[in-house]
Design brief:
The chain is an all-alpha fold. The protein contains 11 helices and no strands.
């Protein structure tokens, strides 16, 4: 990275100048060279990160602004319901696509930092992966999947959902799930466990789903996971449902929400 190269060069030059001019001995020249490296790296890193944060804030502002517009539209529909739920859904999807596309265009500006920030390209790919998922551009999602970073449970759950859509082998899905679950704290595993158990049931592995929920509840007290485990334990497969998780579950696009009127609250990630 450029910042590291500049800092190294500054440190080496400082050490050489102090040493060759005999301003200090070898030990002190080396010390001040290392100190110079640290100071230059710190200052340069701070300035670059400040610019990156400003650019990312702009992307977030576009998404927040679009979300507020959607929420305002839903609020109007609560006062005056649309004649067709399907038409309302289609209109919301079109509106969402507009501001997500705007946010995607803004993420391209982040590539100016590729040589300055470690893993910048992967960070951009991760953000774009989520945005393309929101608008169901699965071709772009699949292209970005090998480049994105799956460090949080929501991202990992999206990956599980996509692998299910692609009919990936159960072994591959289990590997992704197991790796993601290792680093989660208490109750951070809810969406992942819900998605994984749902996928296993769809693949006729009810026993596997039950065991997965058992293990997940060792690190969670979530009511939905508990209820689903009880349904499976008592052979009430038809009652298994992740609807109680809410928008996070439906954002995985594995199921369509069932409702008779516009939802009162929409959240887009």
């Amino acid at each position: 990275m450029i910042t590291v190269a500049i800092a190294v060069l500054a440190g080496v030059l400082m050490g050489l100048v102090l040493g060759l001019t005999e301003t200090f001995g070898y030990g002190w020249s080396t010390f001040f060279g290392v100190l110079t490296f640290g100071v230059v790296q710190g200052v340069a890193g701070y300035l670059v990160q400040k610019k990156v944060k400003a650019a990312m804030t702009q992307v977030q502002a576009i998404l927040v602004g679009g979300q507020k517009q959607l929420q305002a539209k839903v609020a109007r529909w609560q006062m005056r319901p649309p004649s067709s739920i399907q038409a309302a859904q289609a209109e919301m999807a079109r509106d969402q696509r507009v501001f997500v596309k705007e946010a995607l265009a803004e993420t391209e500006n982040l590539h100016q930092f590729d040589l300055w920030v470690p893993f910048m390209k992967r960070q951009i790919a991760t953000a774009q992966f989520q945005l393309y998922w929101m608008i169901k551009d699965f071709k772009a999602v699949d292209e970005l999947m090998p480049k994105a970073m799956f460090l949080d449970p929501t991202m990992s759950a999206i990956k599980l959902a996509r692998l299910q859509m692609l009919n990936a082998p159960t072994e591959e899905i289990t590997k992704v799930y197991t790796k993601a679950m290792r680093r989660l704290r208490y109750n951070q595993n809810v969406l992942l466990a819900a998605a994984y158990s749902w996928i296993l049931i769809k693949r006729n592995d009810v026993d596997g789903a039950f065991k997965a929920l058992n293990r997940a509840l060792e690190n969670s007290d979530n009511v939905v996971l508990k209820t689903n485990r009880e349904h499976l334990a008592n052979n009430r497969l038809a009652h298994f449902s992740n609807a109680g998780i809410g928008e996070q579950w439906y954002a995985l696009q594995l199921e369509e929400p069932k409702y008779n009127q516009p939802r009162q609250r929409m959240q887009w990630r």
